[in-house]
Amino acid sequence: MSEQARVEALLRDIKSGKVPREMQVLAAKGLLPFSQDQVLPLLTTFLGGPDEELKTLSQKTVSEYPASILLRYIASSAGAAELDVLAETLEDPALREGIALSKMVENATLMRLASKAHDRLQEILVANQERILACPEILDALSTNPQLTPNIQRRILEVKEEFFGEKKAFVPSISEDEAKDMGISQQEYMDLFDSFHLDNLSEDQLFSTIQIPQEEVSEEQLSLLQMVYKMSVPEKIQMALKGSQEARGVLLHDSNKLVKEAVVKCPKITDSEISNIASNRSSDEETLRYIGTNRRWVRKYTVIRHLVFNPKTPVGVTMGLLPRMTKKDLKDLGGEKNVPDPIRQAAHRLYLVRMQQ
Q1: Confidence band, pLDDT 50/70/90 cuts, at residue 290
Q2: Is 319 inside a domain boundary?
Q3: Helix or strand or coil: residue 21?
Q4: What is the DSSP letter of 302?
Q5: Residue 173 falls inside a structural domain
Q6: What are 22-27's contacts with CB under 8 Å, separation 24+?
Q7: 210 beta partners
Q8: 218-223: average pLDDT
Q9: Is there a domain that residue 285 lies in?
Q10: DSSP string spanning 205-266?
Q11: By residue range, what is the domain housing residue 297?
Q12: What is the pLDDT of residues 245-281, one digit of tens each?
């Protein structure tokens, strides 16, 4: 038996566990005298195997390899099974891109990559027309990616239209029961939806992102988020107007100001929701401006107080609300360091005037 044949036989025995445990551990640590071309397939086998100790040791060993060596292995030696394992293990964006570009990679692996791809990998996947034609599900998986950029959302729409004849023109609708639940007529709902002038949206404006910190996502919101990620701006606006309180809470984090405007214009939105938005310092200025200039909401003193003490509220809106503040709140506002100087100074002057009355 030749030396090469003996080495290959030993590698097979290590993979299958026909050698002492200590030898497998040494192999997982990369301490056996094998070449890189021999070690990396062995480590990949451990990474995809059931032995947790060997998997952990192999993951550490692989992480210590230079990216250039791993990329060469991915491009020239790794088979479909190895690439599938590495796609689940490697987090380096460049290495994931290398896996996606390999001719050996299977469509199922690309689908898993698509669901968590970063922006450059999203570009690579949506541009791979040959793969998409063979497996349109790659686009569906990409659509569920929470990191999906508006540009890629638009590209997905274009590819579906060009290659699969899917023209997605959104038409708002509302049933009689839905309108009754909202306390308005069907025509009033259509007029409200039309007030957003969505016909003027360009293709680049048809999609937006949800900017919500992962730690703030509740278990109840996870499935809702997956649904929202796939929606266009018109669809999100309809959800904001018709949907649940949980949906409105998610859509308030949307990057498109029309979507957030639709949330606060929802006929079903409650006083407590508006009060929370008014007090939230992550609320954007346009949303706070709408609340602060809406007669329905500024009749509530709690909302007024939250708006005035929120440093994100536009100064012009806050100035108009100051005369309606109580003497105590004016005094507190005059010493509030987080609000803009003009607001603090105006509150202090108004407090002094009230004291003399």
Answers
A1: very high
A2: yes
A3: helix
A4: H
A5: no
A6: 24/51, 24/54, 25/53, 25/54, 25/57
A7: 254
A8: 74
A9: yes
A10: GS---B---GGG--HHHHHHHHHHHT--HHHHHHHHHHS-HHHHHHHTTBS-HHHHHHHHH-
A11: 270-357
A12: 999 999 998 999 999 999 999 999 999 999 999 999 9
